[in-house]
Amino acid sequence: MKRVELLTKIEESGVIAVVRGASKEQGKRSCEALIQGGIKGIEVTFTLPNAAEVIRELVSENLDSSVVIGAGTVLDVTTARLAIMAGAEFIVSPTFDQATAEVCNLYQIPVLLQSFKSTIR
Predict the structure, then answer these.
(1) Nearest CA among 109, 55, 44 for reference residue 86
(2) What is the pLDDT of residues 60-69, one digit of tens each?
(3) Which of 43, 45, 63, 69 lies 20 to 30 angstroms, CA to CA, from 21?
(4) Where is the chain membrane-spanning (predicted)?
């Protein structure tokens, strides 16, 4: 049931802001500004240095339960587990990895695959 509740929370957020940055501090400040500005969906990418720490801090400091914080650019099961243990409520991956999907299923965390479609004709 947890997965369904999280998917509903993601849907209700309306917009998911994808946060990247050159440093942990820059990424965290960006996330905080987005939340203060009313954005309810945050995806912290694992291209951000110390992304798991940023997720952990955001989850522990965020008192607004309508904000959903997830992890992006998750390429393998180890990264997925780090994100989940840090408190990520969803995982986004550019590719399908069965072990990653299985660990997300184990913890009832939604795993979403990025889709890249060309609009050039």
Answers:
(1) 55
(2) 998 778 899 9
(3) 63
(4) none
| Strand, helix or coil for residue 75 | coil
Long-range contacts of 76-84 (CB under 8 A, 24+ apart): 76/100, 77/102, 77/103, 79/46, 80/104, 80/111, 82/52, 83/46, 83/51, 83/52, 83/55, 84/109
Residue written as tokens 């998750």? 74
22, two tokens = 């050159």
User: What angle do helix axes 77-86 and 51-61 make, rounded to 10 degrees?
Assistant: 20
Q: How far is it, in rounded angstroms, from Cα 91 to Cα 70?
A: 6
Question: What does the alpha-carbon distance between residue 71 and residue 79 come to, in Å, rounded to a whole number?
Answer: 9
Q: What is the pTM of this model?
A: 0.90
Cα–Cα separations (whole angstroms), residue 14 to 7, 8, 41, 78, 81: 12, 10, 7, 29, 26
